[in-house]
What does this fold into?
Amino acid sequence: MQAYLLDFANLLLRWLHVIAAVAWIGESIYFVMLDNGLRPPKAAEDRQKGVFGEMWAVHGGGFYHNQKYASAPEKLPEDLHWSFWKAYTTWLSGFGLFVLLYMTNPGFYLVNPGSDWAWAAELTGWQANAVALLFLLSGWVVYNELCKRISPNMERDGVLSLAVAVMMVVVAYLSTQIFAGRAAFLLTGAVMATAMSANVFFWIIPGQRRMVKAMKAGETPNPIDGKRGKQRSVHNTYFTLPVVLLMLSNHYAFTYTHELSWVIMALFIFAGALIRQFFVLMHAGAIRPAYPAAGVALILVAVWVGAPSGKDGVATAAVSPSTSGEAPATAATSLAEVHAIVERRCVSCHAQAPEHAGFAAAPAGVILETEDQLLRQIAQVQQVVASGYMPLGNITQMTEEERAAVTTWTP
It folds into this structure.
């Protein structure tokens, strides 16, 4: 019952997270489109009122006339619309999911026993949780310091963009060395998502509040607040597509189980940013197909890097030679022998009624209780076993001989 209730809480929290994220990202993309789509006002009275730009649009059977003021309008309404709760709700619900799914069972989901770094491979559960939190916090601190030190007055944003790009490559590499594959992708996305929400909380909204306060007092707002808010908003829009991709990646083991998973991750991050750049420029009236073409090219490189090797596309690089001198399994190995290994090492979780306390249902709906069920999913089983991703954290102590027997067996 406890596992069932945790699963139900996971469902509801994930639902909230997706709803908030869709609302936040949708609104963010809309305002970037609006900002870049503004044209000089045609009416003289609008220019006299301080209107910087305007855009006419049609949607839902009606017409809209959006205007942006370069300075304070004559009067600010009391019901001024603010955009921040969607950002905060997205981060809080996402962090809640991370706690519920990963931090409650860190030895299973966070620890990377196969890490080349001994200290990371030997982390205890509470240590892995502490390192994960420190990883998130450090990501925000480093990113924020880069912004403050490289382009404090928004005059060197090009250099800053390159620095942030390098930072994300480093984050991708470190995450895959320290944490288990799926958690590494998630935490890299969470570093960007944390930066996005923190940008709103620490910079964009406080700056806007100062601007509104100055306008209501009849004072001239500090232009640096508007420029900084714009800078951080631009960063947020380029983070958007990579974050969505990384949050979806836990459904696709081929991304995070590869030995060069950090390269695949970095390629997807840059591909997402390039594709987003195309739409940003398009809203400003410039069509630059080279950007999505470059993004697609990076995705194709990721496909090439992540392509499995071995017979029938089953990755075999993670399978070590037998230390006992036994030869890898061949067609002579019976299905019954392979299923016996799966029963010992996998069925405690992958069953109709899992015995493992952390699951109310079989992970990903994969049930391996019978030989027929194993046969129907043998390619997927061989791939995740060969990569070392399954069993998670090798919690059931699958031996290298057993791993070789499963991954090299021929149906």
Q: What stands out?
A: The longest strand covers residues 51-59.
